[in-house]
């Protein structure tokens, strides 16, 4: 028996539908200032482990350092929160506004317990770099095996 995948709509039709919906919203010219425009997973975060350290990077373009807060809670949760102000053109009319703004809070579960007192962070070119040393309890220890 020959089987084929059922596709009720082709990609062309889906793209056409998406364009039509976008055009509809542009024609309505709704007040986008009051829309919650930051995604649930904002900011995007990369986390990796290297030796006795966990590293995290978050993309925060256009963010002012004064509006950014960073916390380590429960030994293995990194919280990044703040508020990005909306861009306000001095003259002119908005035609498209895709960059998000507003308050945000992102909690990232770390792979191990970290020492919150030794965490270091720096903000460079819109990217937050966080270095989180592992807690002593999370570090691997070599166990000597004794023979009888």
Overview of this protein structure:
The model has no long low-confidence stretch (mean pLDDT 82). This protein has 148 residues and is mainly β. Helix content is 12%, strand content 32%. A hairpin with a 2-residue loop joins strand 1 and strand 2 (53-59). The protein has a domain at 37-87 and 99-138: Immunoglobulin-like, CATH 2.60.40.790. The chain has a four-stranded antiparallel beta sheet with strand order 1-2-7-6, with no helix packed on it. A three-stranded antiparallel beta sheet has the order 3-4-5, with no helix packed on it.
Task: Tell me the layout of helices and strands.
Elements: H1 11-28, E1 45-50, E2 53-59, E3 68-73, E4 77-84, E5 102-109, E6 120-124, E7 127-133
Antiparallel strand pairs: 1-2, 2-7, 3-4, 4-5, 6-7
CATH architecture of one domain: Sandwich
Order of helices and strands: HEEEEEEE
What's the helical proportion of residues?
10-25%
Total beta strand runs: 7
Q: Return the average pLDDT rounded to an integer.
A: 82
**Low-pLDDT stretches:** none
Shape: flat
Q: What oligomeric state is this?
A: single chain
Strand order of the largest sheet: 1-2-7-6
Number of helices: 1
Give the CATH class of one domain. Mainly Beta
Strand composition percent: 25-35%
Instruction: Output the CATH topology of one domain.
Output: Immunoglobulin-like
Largest sheet: 4 strands, antiparallel
Distance from N terminus to C terminus (CA atoms, Å) equals 66 Å
- CA gyration radius, whole angstroms: 23 Å
In short:
The protein is mainly beta and 148 residues long.
What structural keywords apply?
Immunoglobulin-like; 148 residues; mainly beta
């Amino acid at each position: 028996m020959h089987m084929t995948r059922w596709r009720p709509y082709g990609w062309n039709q889906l793209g056409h539908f998406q364009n039509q919906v976008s055009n509809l919203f542009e024609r309505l010219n709704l007040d986008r200032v009051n829309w919650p425009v930051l995604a649930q997973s904002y900011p995007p975060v990369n986390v990796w482990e290297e030796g006795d350290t966990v590293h995290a990077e978050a993309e925060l373009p256009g963010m002012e350092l004064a509006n950014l807060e960073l916390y380590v809670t429960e030994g293995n949760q990194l919280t990044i929160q703040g508020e990005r102000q909306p861009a306000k053109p001095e003259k002119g009319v908005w035609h498209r506004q895709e960059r998000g703004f507003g308050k945000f809070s992102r909690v990232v579960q770390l792979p191990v317990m970290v020492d919150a007192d030794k965490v270091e962070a720096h903000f460079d070119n819109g990217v937050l770099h966080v270095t989180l040393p592992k807690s002593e309890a999370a570090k691997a220890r070599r166990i000597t095996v004794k023979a009888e």
